[in-house]
Amino acid sequence: MTEEAKLTVFIPKELEEGETRVAATPETVKTMLQHHIEVHLEAGSGENSYYPDEEYKNAGAIISHDANKLYSIADIILSINPPTHHQIPHLKQKSCWISFVDASSSFEIIPKLIEKNITCFSMNLIPRISRAQKMDALTSQANIGGYKAVIMAANEIGKIFPLMMTAAGTMHPAKVVILGAGVAGLQAIATAKRLGAIVEASDVRPSVKEQVESLGGKFIEVPFDKDAEDKGGYAKQASPEFLKRQAEEVSKRVNQADAVICTALVPGKKAPILVTEAMVKSMRPGSVIVDMAAVQGGNCELTEPGETTLKHGVTIIGVKNIPATVQVHATQMYSKNILALLLNIVREGKLHIHLDDEIIAGSLVTHEGKIINENLAKEFQKLKGDL
Question: What's this model's pTM, rounded to 2 decimal places?
Fold first, then answer.
């Protein structure tokens, strides 16, 4: 370590199957070095994102083949996915881990993080405030996912998306239904419209209607639930009554759709079922459903997470990590998100955790032997109680 450098950051190779992204690029490595942070990368960690070791080395990073040793000496680990049971035992006491982490998928590791006194930040929990926009990894990755979901649908159906008039006859535009008009859904609407499709969209939040229409989509009108979104702008669990009304309206559109893009997620909860088996049966053979909610069980009743299946003549795509299929730009965006958070907690080569900072308090999972985020603590206790 140089005389000026006071903190060691380690970027490991991702262990989750199908993960192609990495938490740093040569560009973000250079920025870390400028802030007196020594950067180590596990050899080959950027290869799946098309960043060879040599580029990181030229940027000033130290390439290592001994990941376990780096876990034991690093002050901060930057990652895409939560720490695993294999990684946690090697972490240095009181070190810092930054990645995506949520209570439901990380239930078993949180006690282990507390035991080792790990300061763990979750990129899932970045508050949606203006000061934190550059750190908002959920938004950056949802943008990528919404775009790619439409491309996947367009690639799968046996039709073209735009209206096309030829000497051989007229080909009518594809009909696309988007379920959920958050960041991913809005990007899906914009992408489908750019490709020339007729687009309709549905959401539980009344505030998104204008956004849908501004992108050229038609909003599927359903009498709204009160309090359908939380203070951070995320969708809340809708009431059974609303879901019934929504299903009735959506089913009318789904049976005419060439492609359905499902994006409805509620943080920390199983994805709501918006497309039933009966709806799938009503769709035309050759239609496609891309279920972006597959990672949380899926919005379609017949989705098999991680699989692409054919059910009742309809192709259902349940890819759980769509951003990882666009790894170059997904990595570029995520690495800048995580860098922005890192520079918010590092001052003059030292780690500063101030709980009066809304961003820090909101995104902290564990610190000094306890769970910090109140909502996550409640969810964690609920999960414990359900066992």
Answer: 0.90
